[in-house]
């Protein structure tokens, strides 16, 4: 037998050993590359974080979202810039936040592909990786969510708010406890549902405030570290389950409601919203086709009717893509707004003085209630209300997770460091908002700080909606 054949058969006989050796060699090369040769090798930070993303996964999945605190510890130890995963840096320097999160006129900003991969929202503006594609998809949405756009929505928001107050009033004199976190998700979802698809869904009046939607969103968030760490696994499970390469939401699309209801009642809420959105988009498209005339096609208060006439290319107007956009709005719009309202309400209820001051400040504007509602402009002029809102936004943080940004073609200069193009850099609103040099006694809810001696740094570093070209669209 020739020598090569003998070597080959020996190798085959010992394929386990060969595989193990190959694994060890591969790992050694990977570790060496990450520690010594990667463009991030020169940045400080713990070696374990530089070598493997499992470190983040452990803290975020098993310790339920605690990596952000670990990152803070790294900054305390290694300084304002640290390497937190093999592919990402974190900067903790509130004054630099606005230099990372920039508008398109300063620099392009790509989404970091590793962020939110695996969740099946590809094609939405939110997860569009390249700066230019994100701009193209986001630009037509901006007028709808601009100050003028939001002012047009005021009467609708007012009606939903009145319904909400009626529902809370109905508890008067009963001993029942209201879960405000559930109630506010219902309020926000009813508003966003109307904006997205003129929905008549009425979670506010559901006996449990439509808690299924609340649970679905929270479970989804808890599963994010798993889905993001193993996007291929999720796809694999899906393809194995369906033989085809269908992802989670696509699977949901083909399961009949009865089966879904039986599998998990929460998924029905998801399905209900998706169906509302899809039907609304189909109807609007049909109407536009029949009219064939942008002039008489009313965009009304629906973001999707508005999008259809916005000049987006046909490829971006498919029912599937727009339905996913609707899901992004519902998720992004309901949970963060509700969280901020929870915070503020809790502190108002827990503090008699806040409650009294708010009553006094609001009384003149509420004289005509429920016939006449105060306007956005009038409410903006109330200093104590605004201070409560700012402090609520500061301590509810918006999104606690770092929002990694990538400069695709220009290096970023930070102090003596040069961050090469293509590297993801994350900064966290949590770290900004709890920096004691900017907000003394940072973990105390203190609206007073927004009434006297407000420093420019306090305003600059308050970033609950993020900043720059990828900031929150629903901020107004
Ligand atoms: C207190 C309320 C809210 C807070 C604190 C908040 C916070 C945020 C933050 C921090 C981001 C940036 C995510 C990133 O950096 O990638 C974001 C994005 C976004 N938010 Fe909000 N949000 C709120 C309410 C809303 C509402 C009511 C809507 C919709 C009606 C909305 C829609 C969006 C959308 C569509 C994006 C993605 C923007 C893009 O990628 O271009 N948000 N939000």
From TrEMBL:
Source organism superkingdom: Eukaryota
Cofactor: heme
Gene3D superfamilies membership: Cytochrome P450 (1.10.630.10)
Protein keywords: Heme, Iron, Membrane, Metal-binding, Monooxygenase, Oxidoreductase, Transmembrane, Transmembrane helix
Pfam families from the UniProt entry: p450
Signal peptide (residue range): none
PROSITE patterns: CYTOCHROME_P450
Transmembrane segments: 15-37
Family indicated by similarity: Belongs to the cytochrome P450 family.
Name of the protein described by the UniProt record: Cytochrome P450
UniProt source species: Paraconiothyrium brasiliense
